């Protein structure tokens, strides 16, 4: 076992996100409980090194856009004003300060490539 120098944030959609998702053209039928049970887990710097609220406040826009893009590539269907208050209304944020790696194989990293929404 190894302790990793990161903390974990789990974004759990709230009802306003589910409401937005359900009104999308061709929207899948997904209930809130299913959305919440599969929230995205994100590694952030270890909480001993920063205030996680400040880190999330600095990065909320990119996180918000990534969450929306996971479900809808057409950004014209996204909320027009994507601010921190709306992000906090749409997501619960669970912070887990300690991350332990139970696997002996080294971690592998792959660059995240977001959708290029301007090319579509």
Report on this structure.
This protein is an alpha+beta fold and 120 residues long. 34% of the residues lie in helices and 21% in strands. It contains 4 helices and 5 strands. The radius of gyration is 16 Å and the shape is globular. The protein starts with a strand and ends in a 19-residue tail after the last strand.
Number of helices: 4
> Count the strands?
5
Task: Supply Rg.
Answer: 16 Å
Distance between the termini: 44 Å
Class per helix and strand makeup: alpha+beta
- The overall average pLDDT, rounded, is 90
The best one-word shape is: globular
The topology string of helices and strands comes to: EEHHEHHEE
List its traits.
120 residues, alpha+beta, 3-stranded antiparallel sheet, two-stranded antiparallel ribbon, 34% helix
What is the topology?
Blueprint (H helix, E strand, L loop, with lengths): L1 E3 L1 E8 L1 H8 L9 H6 L3 E5 L6 H20 L12 H7 E6 L2 E3 L19
Antiparallel strand pairs: 1-5, 2-3, 2-4
Q: Concise description?
A:
By secondary structure, this protein is of the alpha+beta class. The protein has four helices and five strands; from the N terminus they run ββααβααββ.
């Amino acid at each position: 076992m190894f302790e990793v120098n990161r903390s974990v944030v789990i974004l759990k959609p709230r009802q306003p996100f589910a409401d937005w998702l359900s009104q999308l053209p061709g929207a899948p039928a997904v209930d809130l409980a299913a959305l919440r049970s599969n929230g995205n887990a994100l590694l952030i710097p270890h909480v001993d090194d920063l205030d996680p609220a400040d880190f999330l406040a600095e990065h909320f826009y990119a996180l918000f856009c990534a969450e929306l893009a996971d479900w809808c590539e057409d950004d014209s269907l996204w909320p027009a004003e994507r601010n921190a208050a709306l992000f906090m209304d749409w997501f619960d944020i669970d912070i887990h300060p300690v991350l332990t790696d139970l696997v002996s194989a080294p971690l592998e990293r792959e660059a995240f490539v977001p959708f290029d929404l301007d090319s579509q």
